[in-house]
Structure formats: C-alpha cells, structure tokens
Specification:
Oligomer: single chain
Strand content: 5-15%
Distance between the termini: 27 Å
Strand order of the largest sheet: 3-2-1-4-5
Radius of gyration: 18 Å
Order of helices and strands: HHHEHEHEHEHE
Helix content: 25-40%
Length: 196
C-alpha cells in the first residue's frame, strides 16, 4: 500500500501544508491528484510553486477512477472534475428513481462508465473486472457513497449501529478489496471520503 504524500512541493524550502490550500482550481481535482503517490514529482515545479492546471490535467489524463455516490454532492463534483481533466470516471450509484444521469458528464467526455448499483447488495468483482478488461488498468478509487442516518450515541442500539457501519463502510472495503491487485499494478491511489 502507498501512504499519501505529506507535501505537494519539492526542493529547498518545501512546504508541508496540505496541497489543496495552495492550488488555484477545484478541490475535487486537487484532492485526487494530491492523493496519487507519484503526484509530487509529476505535478510540482522545482522552484516550490504549485503546478498549473495543465500539469495536473496531463498527470491524470486517461486515468481510470472509480467514484461511488457520483450522482450528487461531493461525488458528482469529483466525477465531473475528473472528466474535465481527462480522466475516465467509473461512477457507481443507486438508481434513485433517475432515468438517466449520464447527460451532464457526457457533455464533458464520451469516455466514462456508469453503473446503477446498490453498493450494499451488489457483487462488485464483475464490474471491476469488466472495467479492467475494457481499459487495461485501474488507477484510483474514490469511496464517497454514504448515507447520513442521524444515529445518536444516547439512543442508538448496537444493532442499529452495526447496520449503519454495514451501510456506510462495508462497500468501501469491498471496492478496494476488488480493485487492489489493479491498483498495485498501476501504483494507483485510494481516496476515502467521510462527511456528516
């Protein structure tokens, strides 16, 4: 496994401040690029200044990235930004009563995948293998899907807490478990998102 880089800059006087605070583009794209283990050598300038948008775009161009919960909120922002910067988003999301969610992303790119799945009740291995067979590599996973079930410490039973853990964390493990051999092969990265 790969540890996240502690800095985005290199050379004399390098800055240890987390990268997204220094970048002049959206946090979604920045966070993803920053998380790649090879990111620092690919996206920084030797004089310690942040790389341009074009450097970032070149770095993630053609990368195949799974994004869970990619139809709204943070996940949608990440999927769209990845598409804008030339990556190949693979979006996993519940159907949620929506007929077609591909419209917005297809205005940006024609190279993407979209799977309507319940992450808590779907075998992810066939999807992962299908994507790998099509593109020949998997470069990243953004685990974003989750549901705020408003459970409170004082009133929640351990059984309900266990259900919440299953609903919010098990699919994080499963997707990483299934993509792990391919991520090791590509020296790819994992971004786990939690919000409340």
């Amino acid at each position: 496994s790969h540890a996240l880089p502690r800095r985005l800059f290199t050379g004399v006087g390098a800055c240890d401040t987390p990268a997204p605070a220094h970048l002049g583009f959206t946090a979604a794209g920045a966070a993803f690029c920053w998380a790649f283990p090879r990111g620092p050598t690919s996206v920084i300038a030797r004089n310690g200044r942040a790389a341009s948008k074009e450097h970032i775009r070149i770095f993630i161009l053609g990368k195949v990235v799974f994004v869970t919960g990619g139809f709204k909120g943070i996940g949608k922002g990440i999927a769209l930004q990845l598409a804008r910067e030339g990556a190949i988003p693979v979006v996993l999301n519940r159907k949620d009563g929506v007929e077609d969610e591909s419209g917005e992303i297809s205005e940006i790119t024609k190279t993407f995948e979209m799977y309507y799945v319940d992450l808590n009740d779907t075998e992810l291995k066939p999807i992962v293998e299908e994507v790998y067979k099509k593109y020949g590599h998997i470069d990243g996973v953004v685990n974003n899907a989750g549901r705020n079930d408003n459970l409170e410490l004082e009133t929640t039973s351990w059984q309900d807490f266990e259900k919440s853990l299953h609903g919010n964390l098990t699919h994080y493990f499963e997707l990483v478990h299934e993509t792990c051999p391919y991520l090791k092969e590509s020296k790819g990265s994992i971004v786990n998102i939690a919000s409340k």
